[in-house]
Amino acid sequence: MRVTPKEEPARGLPRLRSRMAKLRNPRAGAGEAEGALWNLEEKYRTLVRTMPTALMVVNLEKEILEVSQLTLEQHGFDRAEELLGKNAIMLVSAPDREKVETNIRNILTTGSVKNLECVMARRDGSAFIGELNIGLIRDGQGRPRGFIGISQDIAARRQVEEELKESEKKFKAIFENAQDGILLADQTSQKLYAGNKMISQMLGYSLGEIKTLGLMDIHRQEDLKYVIEQFEKFGKKEIPIAKDIPVKRKDGSIFYADISGSPIVLGGKSYLVGIFRDITERKRAEGELKKTLEDLKRSNQELEQFAYVASHDLQEPLRMISSYTQLLGKRYRDQLDDDARDFINFAVDGAKRMQKMINDLLAYSRVQTRGKAFGPTDTYSALGQALINLSQAIEDSHGIITYDQLPEVNADESQLVQLFQNLLSNAIKFQREKPPRVHISAEKKDKEWVFSVRDNGIGIDPKYYDRIFIIFQRLHGKGDYPGTGIGLALCKRIVERHGGRIWLQSEPAKGSTFIFSIPDKEEKNNDQSNDGQTG
Ligand code: ADP
Fold first, then answer.
1. Which helix (H) or strand (E) covers residue 246, if one does?
2. Would 9-153 and 370-530 be classified into the same CATH topology?
3. Is the torsion defined by CA of 347, 469, 440, 389 positive or negative?
4. Using CB atoms within 10 A of its CB, is residue 110 exposed (0-12), middle (13-18) or buried (19+)?
5. What distances in angstroms separate CA 451 from CA 262, 407, 522, one per listed residue?
6. Of 158, 87, 105, which is closest to residue 127 (Cα–Cα)?
7. Counting C-beta atoms within 10 Å of the first and last residue's C-beta, which end of the chain has fewer, N or C?
8. CATH 3.30.565.10 matches 370-530
9. 96 burial class (0-12, 13-18, 19+ CB within 10 angstroms)?
10. Domain 178-278 indexed as CATH 3.30.450.20
11. Cβ distance 49 to 69 under 8 Å?
């Protein structure tokens, strides 16, 4: 079907030229008019051809009158002459031609067509997606004369759109499936705008319902002032996260959340994105842990109290047993036979040992209760004091004690002396024939000092590593090596009070190394002791 108006069919450029010339200057002479026309014609051609757009001018029969360089390039032509006079519709790929034709027909009534998307054809038969904008050209009397078409290769734009869609899809998936609840709220009205599945689960409202809520619906009245303050701080980027915020569910119950908030602008409006992490379970676990620790502390205190009272109060009757048995032995020495005298000696011996054990127990219970406050302590002098206290035993054993440079730590000095003393006395004591050789060293590891006391003694079977730190646990009879089995238990308690650990490495018959750590003095090591106990 043709689309040219019946009363004035357009017949190409020559007619247009003369018409334009006449329109411009109706009284002008023929030569003058011709010159002006050519001048105008040249300007018009140059203008169209150099236009930085894919543009073409066609008459009402859709014959191409002029094309821009960019149109030629888009469709794979070299020169304008290759297209001039041809039907412009051939530049549209066959399946879309009818669509374009229909639109061109409509232009005659509407004036123009905008953003008509269609597949365009190249000279080599390939295609590209273009967007056509077509306008109607009218003459001075308003009669339709032709069309101007601008086309744009939108493949690149399409790709960007596709990528955008794809990334939107991904973000949507992340948003919807996030394990944290996400809420979008209007910054000005504080109304909720959108949410994800998780927030809907957390709050107990459907996604549709969420959009009808405001901050006051998801927080208790008493928390609202604080919540709004945090909300405003998020908006000003003053804080990134508000911790431990009570949030109200639809059923009125409360859960606690850490909320990270940040402002965003969507469609020119300011919103806040809030990411809710439900910490109710963590809070409950923390609460339980706190309670367990408190219980533990209380039961430790009770145990210490018990150990203290028992050891303190047992001393008196024990002293009586011991002194009266000794008195019995002395007074009735002549009336008793050898057996009776041996029995009395055993009883006295037993009472003395028990007294020692009770004293040890008392010392053990006092590690916490009688411990002094921590202060800067030179471990080198603490070791020196321990060596002085043990000088007789060292001399008797012909032992050689060596040590490296030792650091200053934050500690209770007298307990540190006791710690070195216990470890050194064991290192000297648990020997066979050889004279003991003991070496003390310290090494900084991360945030603590790790001390070791290495000996060349009898060594310890690894299966007893744990047992030897338990109070009164010994691996030998008192006939082999003297002692009550409290030394290492005391060491452990002292080290733990200082926030460290104690362990050992050993090879039976070769020697043992007892290792303990004390936090570096820059690190805080909290004194666990409880005051108020006397003894
Ligand atoms: P005690 O020295 O009074 O026996 P400890 O608590 O100090 O008590 O030590 C517990 C046990 O650990 C000892 O009886 C001994 O068997 C073992 N032990 C401790 N230190 C050493 C050591 N340096 N070498 C070998 N065995 C050791």
1. strand 241-248
2. no
3. negative
4. exposed
5. 49, 10, 17
6. 158
7. N
8. yes
9. buried
10. yes
11. yes
Cβ of 427 less than 6 Å from ligand 1? yes
CB-based contact 139:19 (threshold 8 Å): yes
- In this structure, are residues 63 and 145 in contact, taking their beta carbons and an 8 Å threshold? no
Ligand 1 contact, 525 CB (< 6 A): no
In whole angstroms, what is the distance from residue 521 CA to residue 418 CA?
A: 20
- Name the pTM for this structure: 0.53
Long-range contact pairs involving 522-526 (C-beta distance under 8 Å, separation at least 24)? 522/447, 523/447, 523/448, 523/499, 525/374, 525/410, 525/498, 525/499, 525/500, 526/499
DSSP letter (8 states) at residue 68: -
The domain ranges of the chain are 9-153, 178-278, 283-365, 370-530
8 Å CB contact between 426 and 487: yes
Say if residues 304 and 365 touch (Cβ distance below 8 Å).
yes
**127-148 pLDDT per residue, tens:** 998 999 999 999 889 899 999 9
Q: Is 261 in the pocket of ligand 1 (CB under 6 A)?
A: no
Distance of CA 153 to CAs 82, 149, 469, 530, Å? 21, 13, 83, 82
Shortest-distance Cα residue to atom 11 of ligand 1:
474
Q: Whose CA is nearest to atom 7 of ligand 1?
A: 487
As a whole number, the mean pLDDT across the chain is: 87
Q: Is 497 in the pocket of ligand 1 (CB under 6 A)?
A: no
What are the pLDDT digits (tens) for 269-281? 899 999 999 999 9
411 C-beta closer than 6 A to ligand 1:
no
Q: In 189-279, which residue ranges form alpha helices assigned H by DSSP?
A: 197-203, 207-210, 215-218, 221-235
What would the CATH number be for the domain defined by 9-153?
3.30.450.20
